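Researcher: Following up on the earlier apo prediction. This time include the ligand. It's pyridoxal-5'-phosphate, with the SMILES given after the sequence.
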Amino acid sequence: MKLSERIVRMAPSATTAMAAKAKELKDQGRPVVSFTTGEPDFNSPKAARDYAVRAMDEGQTHYTVNAGMKELRQAAADYYERHFGLRYGVNEVITGTGAKQLLYEAMGCLVNPGDEVILFAPAWVSYFEQVRLFDGVPVIQDTQATGCIPDPQQFEKLITDKTVAVVLNNPNNPTGMVYPHDVLEKITRIALKHGITLINDEIYERLVYGVSFTPHLLQLVPEARDFVLNINGVSKSFAMTGWRLGYALGPEKLIKAMTSMQGHITSNTSSISQWAAMGALKESEEDVERMRKVFEQRRALVLRLLADIPGLSVLEPSGAFYVFMDLSAFLGEGKKWATDVDFCEAILKEKALGLVPGTAFLSPGHVRLSYSCSEEQIVEGVRRLKEFLA
Ligand SMILES: Cc1ncc(COP(=O)(O)O)c(C=O)c1O
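Model: Understood. Below is the ligand-bound prediction.
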């Protein structure tokens, strides 16, 4: 059998691969600590579970319209109005099988072969591959020299007549950076000026520390509304990764195109998950804040422990639940590990500690630690990391 070139050149998701390796070791009885996956360890909010059970009992177990139930799209629109003062109609909202599917559909609806999409590295694993799955060209702006915050001037220089979109991920996976207002504003203005679509992945929008909310880029530049696609979902802030429910809000033309594409992929996402998401969006505010506070404590703990490891350079995050660390002092020719990938494989094997290599985020020489696990695991995992590096 001959597989398509598109699939042969695609790299599998390194985060899920590392998580799978960690799980395999755990199944063999090793006392694994896994800092690999980006998912909260809490149960989903009670309202979400109750809505789902009720939906099953009442026979809400059939196809819905492709974009998702009108009531849910309305609940997502209401959420954006409540939190950001942004108004969207139900025809400007689509729900899908996780934010991941919606990002994929957005690429499918925007990218022709050879078109360019600008990504800011370090970047989440899937953007790069999703652009390439549609024969587009990911154009990477490395943000390391500017503290992992995109530089608007450099961004503008990368725009060509082939550029169709830019992906902004704020708060960021893997760095945990929350972008300053002026950067958000400048990038949005530049995208608007050049007429390119800004895919605004704000799946971690509720997980910021120090302040409860950051302004939305459309509050800063309201006139860019027709060029911005907001990607969000219940996976991270509501601890609902397994329900696979994401939503997107944007210009009706794009939402309609994505809905039409979804009609040929999954039709709608699970009706039960749609009901659960309704419970989350309407009645789970307190749960979100409770979990955010726990993450805030874990963040303080992990940063305190990591500061005690000599030679380790840590970028202090203000959002999401990740710490991105520069390991370059420990890697390279003549050192014990040549690359971040070698390092992650070795530490998993020798110390049963799971981390994700920075290479997976277009940033070799780094590793990502996810602190979405218990304080005991954080303490034990960082202890193993310290011992390994010593
Ligand atoms: C930046 C970013 N966007 C999107 C997603 C996908 O989320 P979902 O579970 O809703 O598909 C993730 C999940 O890890 C993510 O980190």
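Model: The chain has two domains: 5-43+286-389, 46-284.
Researcher: Noted. I'll compare it with the apo version next.
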